[in-house]
Amino acid sequence: MTRNMNRRRSDNGAKISSNDDTRSLIEASQRLAAEVSRMFAPETDIVDRHYWIEAMMNHIPDYIYAKDLQGRFLIANQATVTENGFRHMHEIVGKSDHDIHSPENARLFQAAERRVIETGEPMFGIEERNVLSTQERWLMTSKLPLRDKRGKTIGIVGVSRDITDRKRSERLLLGQARLLEMIAKGTPLAEFFKELILMIEAQLPGIIGSVLLLSEDRRHLLTGAAPGLDDAYCAAIHGAAIGPKAGSCGTAAFRGEPVIVTDILADPLWEDHRALVEPFGYRSCWSTPIRSYHGEVLGTFALYSRTVGSPTADQNELTSMAAHLAGIAIEQRRSEERIQFMAHHDALTGLPNRVLFDERIAAALKQARLAGQWVALAFLDLDNFKLINDSLGHSAGDELLRIMAARMLACVRKSDMVVRVGGDEFIILLNRLPPDSDIVLSRLEDIREAIGAPLTLSGRSLQVSCSMGVVCYPDHGETAGELLANADSAMYGAKEMGRNNLQLFNSEMAAGAREKLLRHAELRDALARNEFVLHYQPQMSLKTGRIFAAESLIRWQHPQRGLVPPGDFIPLAEETGLIVPIGDWVLNAACRQNKAWQDAGLPPIVISVNVSARQLRERNWVARVAEVLEESGLEARYLELELTESLIMQDVTMAIATMHELAALGVKLAIDDFGTGYSSLSALKSFPVERLKIDRSFVQDIPGNADDRAITAAIISLAQKLQMQVIAEGVETQEQVDFLAASGCDDIQGYFVSRPVAAAALVNLLV
Ligand code: C2E
Ligand code: MG
Ligand code: MG
Questions:
Q1: Which DSSP string corresponds to 187-209?
Q2: 566: Cβ below 6 Å to ligand 1?
Q3: What is the set of domains in the chain, with CATH numbers?
Q4: Does the CB atom of residue 571 touch ligand 1 within 6 A?
Q5: Over the stretch 445-489, which tens digit does the pLDDT of each residue have?
């Protein structure tokens, strides 16, 4: 029998569920077929049997019936009678499916029964769909041949079980899974909502779903999807304001809670929209807010019906499930959009970033080429931004950047682009320009003017200026890379012109850029060829007259140009980053030299080494210093590092942290060129610094210049108060020495003592 059954299943191809339902149904139908056959056997006590079977059948919630060869009911249990709209069995006996069901369903049922009769083979566990009025029902049915005692088929016996609920939840789970998959795959929201509504509508015949989304101002509802609602109705409610009396959805969004309107034509909530909805015949509307994870209302999910009424528990459950899924989808989309936005924009100003610029620039150039137009690219740098940032604090700096970003944006057109590429650096891309540099420059001048307008920041009024380097496509470059490099050169030119300046790229700059490239290569080769040398300038104590230290100063022994002073190549080395390996070389050479002097038996001195900002920013620089000391064998206390004030002020927090690490090594620290930068006196206290070096510019005009005298004396007393040593640089004359000694200056360095000299010459000064 089991083998037979399996064969049947595959033969008729009917969809069979292999769960308990099927098994118990099969057993019940087999028992019943046997019983009914026996009932018709002449030797059976018909009255007893009949009573017994009838009682049994009528207590079973499954549908049990027997039909003759023409498909007319011979017998049916109470469940079948009631289900088909009758009260007593005799009312159904003699009727066929054509008398009860829709022609389509009747045909389907009869076809199955005919097959059983013709083949004499039973059918087990077929799923049958039956639409009764508007309600969809699913039955799991088994049908067996009804035979007389000679084995002749005289009809069928059928047993059906209502599996509508199971079927519905199966479909719901499948639908949910499909919808979640759509969310995961990033399906467009409109498409997702449509699918969601269709799934709900399939569960609830006669019900129409809609999704409305809250507008950006959070005061209106916009159509998200409503495939079953009339287009004209959707158009009419699109953009409707939410409020305490704004139909079902408008009120639900406003209140943030479900709103059940059982009769649209009678409910006061619909009073203002009644005329609008009436022609479409919608009578009830139940709406639920769609919420974000944090509970914020994002829109509404609503069910409409053309009949008056309130939702069943099932319908409520489906609505909240749908609203929940819609919420997940909207949030997911928003976070995707946020991620996309963050990847392409600067978080502080909201301006596009370099990534987006790189994505767009090629298209902008192509479009300009086709249209015969120009594209202008300006590199813009705020002048002295670092100073403002350090003196007013980072949050004021951030605010300033936001204000400047807004000012720039206000000056450009929608098709243009303002890009933040770094701290205070921006690129302005102007599109669709006529080929006329005057027009380009006047538009950029407007931006410069806007930036220069006064503003108040942290209660202080100030004015910011900017420098711009400008290039125009196609005159100054064919590709984005070329244009940017040239804009950079133009910007350099603008800065050299004294800031607050706008420079259009020109051929001299092109030559300048080329020259710079050559010089960079030459400098790199100089390092490889070991063309650098160190000279040493002694430092003398005013109290003892003893030389206790020397500053190492780099020179370039150029094969053609002779001895090149550092001012001629250090700035380029700093700009190009070559200062890092060059600085390494200096540190190494100076430490080794000092150790060599000590090993030669000379009185030990401290060696000073100048440090650039780029070096200090190197991540492992402190470790590098420790390594050099280790390798050279020089004790840390014989090495002094000179940091300039402006270097420290570029990033005070970082500089202080690094200074402490260096001090922990035992290395001495000095502030070079003191007085020319913008040290905040309060910050100075926290520097682990031993010496201030008064800049040469103050020393050179003393004692003649009263201002310089005052400044020098002030620096000396400041150093004393902070318990730091103070040394004057660039001391050339006896008068300067006298003034400095009288003011309490500790030490001096300058031509008065000695010019910087080669290592061999310094030895003479030490002994
Ligand atoms: P600095 O560190 O302030 O060095 C002092 C400069 O003043 C030296 O110029 C020195 O020759 C000069 N000088 C010293 N005494 C007198 C004087 O009495 N009168 C006059 N008129 N000048 C005097 P130099 O050697 O040309 O160095 C210039 C700058 O180059 C240095 O200024 C320093 O900032 C930088 N530099 C030199 N060597 C290095 C180095 O190895 N690494 C780094 N990063 N920078 C260096
Ligand atoms: Mg120095
Ligand atoms: Mg100096």
A1: --HHHHHHHHHHHHHHHSTTEEE
A2: yes
A3: 5-162 (3.30.450.20), 168-342 (3.30.450.40), 347-505 (3.30.70.270), 532-551+603-766 (3.20.20.450)
A4: no
A5: 999 999 999 999 888 888 899 999 999 999 999 899 889 989 988
